[in-house]
Amino acid sequence: MEKMLVVFLISCILHFASAQLKLGFYNSTCPRAESIVQGIVQQRFNTDRSITAALLRMHFHDCFVRGCDASILIDSTRSKSSEKDAGPNETVRGYDLIDVAKKAVEAVCPSTVSCADIITLATRDAVALAGGPKYAVPTGRRDGLVSDAADVNLPSPSLTVAEAFSFFQAKRMTLNDMVTLLGAHTVGIAHCGFFQDRLSNFQGTGQPDPTMDAGLAARLLRTCGTASRPVNRDPTVFLDQGTSFVVDNQFYNQTRFKRGILQIDQELALDRSTAPIVSMFASNRIAFQQSFASAMIKLSKVEVLVGKAGEIRKNCRVFNPRKKTVIGTGL
C-alpha cells in the first residue's frame, strides 16, 4: 500500500510540473525569445543541415538523465566531471549554437529564458527546417543545479527492444513513443564502432549479422573495416542512406528491408511488439509526422523543473554563482 501511495504521489508531482509549462510562457516577459532562437537555428541550418541531428541528440541525452533541465550543457571542472564528459555524450555537439542563442536572448531579456527552454525550442525549429512536423512546445522550464557524469545511463544501440523499452518506461513513455523517437535516426549518423560487430564477426560467428542486408554489410565493411583492422580512427555513416538530412519516414522503410544499421534500429522491424508500428510508419508519412510531433512534446516535458525550482542560468555552461555549489551536488 505504501509503495502504491509513493508511486501515486510521484505521478501527481510529475503531472503538476508538466502542467505548469504553457504555450507562450515568455509572451509578456520576453516576447521575442522564440523568434530569436528560431532565427539563429535558421542561420546555422543554412550552412549545416546536420545541426538537426545534433540538436535532437542533445535534447534526448539531456532529458533522459535528470529530465529536461539543460544539465548536459554544464562544463566539467577540475574536481568534477559533468554530464557533458560522460562516455555517451562525448560525441554530442551543437553546444556553440545554444551559446549563441542564449547570448542573443540575454541581450534582450536578462535572466529570463532558461537554457532548457532554448534547447527545446532550437530542437523544434531544427526539426521543422529539416522537413519534419511543425509543432508548438510549452515553455517555462528551469535549469538544473546538478550535472554529474556518473548519472548518465542511456540506452545502448546494441540493446534488444525489451531492454531499450525499459529506459523509456522509466520516463513514463510508451512503446509507440520509443519507436517514434528512434525515428529521429532518419537524420542521424553513427560511428562505426557502434555497429562494427555486425559487419564481419557477429556474436563471434565470423560472419555478418544475418539480419543486415548483405550488400549493405559489404559496403559498410569497406567504409569501416573490422574491429581489429579499422579503416581509420572511427568513421561515421548515415543511419538513413536515402534522405539523410530529412526528417521523414524512410528510416522505417529501410529497416523493413534489413537496412537498419544500428542493432536496435533493425530490431524494431523484427520484434513482434514493434514491427506493426514500424510498418504503419513506413507506409503512412502523416501518421509518423503526427506521432513524432506528439512524442517530441512529451519528451520535452520529462521531469522538468518549474516555478521556483532550479534557476535561470546567465551562462548555459556554468551554474549561477552561489555558496557551496559544485558540479554533482545539490544545494
TrEMBL record:
Primary location: secreted
Signal peptide (UniProt feature, chain positions): 1-19
GO molecular function: heme binding; lactoperoxidase activity; metal ion binding
An example Gene Ontology CC term for this record: extracellular region
Binding site for heme b: 185
UniProt site positions, description: Transition state stabilizer: 57
Keyword Oxidoreductase annotated: yes
SS bonds (residue pairs): 30-109, 63-68, 115-316, 192-224
Domain of life: Eukaryota
PROSITE patterns tied to this protein: PEROXIDASE_1, PEROXIDASE_2, PEROXIDASE_4
Residues that, per the record, bind substrate: 155
Cofactor mode of binding and number, as noted: Binds 2 calcium ions per subunit. Binds 1 heme b (iron(II)-protoporphyrin IX) group per subunit.
Positions with a binding annotation for Ca(2+) 1: 62, 65, 67, 69, 71, 83
Key word Signal present: yes
Pfam families linked to this entry: peroxidase
Names of required cofactors: Ca(2+); heme b
EC number(s) per entry: 1.11.1.7
UniProt enzyme class: oxidoreductase
Domain Plant heme peroxidase family profile: 20-320
Residue sites binding Ca(2+) 2 per the record: 186, 240, 243, 248
Keywords on record: Calcium, Disulfide bond, Glycoprotein, Heme, Hydrogen peroxide, Iron, Metal-binding, Oxidoreductase, Peroxidase, Secreted, Signal
The reaction(s) this protein catalyses: 2 a phenolic donor + H2O2 = 2 a phenolic radical donor + 2 H2O
Active site: 61
Function: Removal of H(2)O(2), oxidation of toxic reductants, biosynthesis and degradation of lignin, suberization, auxin catabolism, response to environmental stresses such as wounding, pathogen attack and oxidative stress. These functions might be dependent on each isozyme/isoform in each plant tissue.
Similarity annotation: Belongs to the peroxidase family. Classical plant (class III) peroxidase subfamily. Belongs to the peroxidase family. Ascorbate peroxidase subfamily.
Protein name as annotated: Peroxidase
The organism of origin for this protein: Sesamum alatum
Lineage: Eukaryota, Viridiplantae, Streptophyta, Embryophyta, Tracheophyta
